[in-house]
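We modelled the chain as a single entity of 116 amino acids. Its sequence is:
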Amino acid sequence: MSRKGKNTAGILAGLLAGAAAGVVLGMLYAPEEGKETRKKIKTKANDLKDQAKNKYGEVSEKVKDQYSNISSTFKETANNVAHTVKDGYDKYKDQIVSKTTDVVKDVEAELNDLKK
């Protein structure tokens, strides 16, 4: 995970923890019956848990999308580099074969001239 992703996750966790603490403290100091307060705390805790799951799902999807995009880009780049190298190899191979053939012909011509 990138450094930015770690910071975002840390901030998100801090915000959720702060919100949970605020809700609990607010309920504990509210003038209500203990049973009712516990019920509200449980409800709020479940709400926060659901929000955390939703955020985790969103962040998880974003990470998967980014990984997919980076992976595709890397594969494309690798294929382009491979094709460029192969094309360069083929180009220079043909030039070398052509020049070698020319040199062989020149040598044969010189040998034929020396035999005469």
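As a brief sanity check on the tokenised model: Helices lie at 3-29, 34-115. Residues 34-115 form the longest helix (82 residues).
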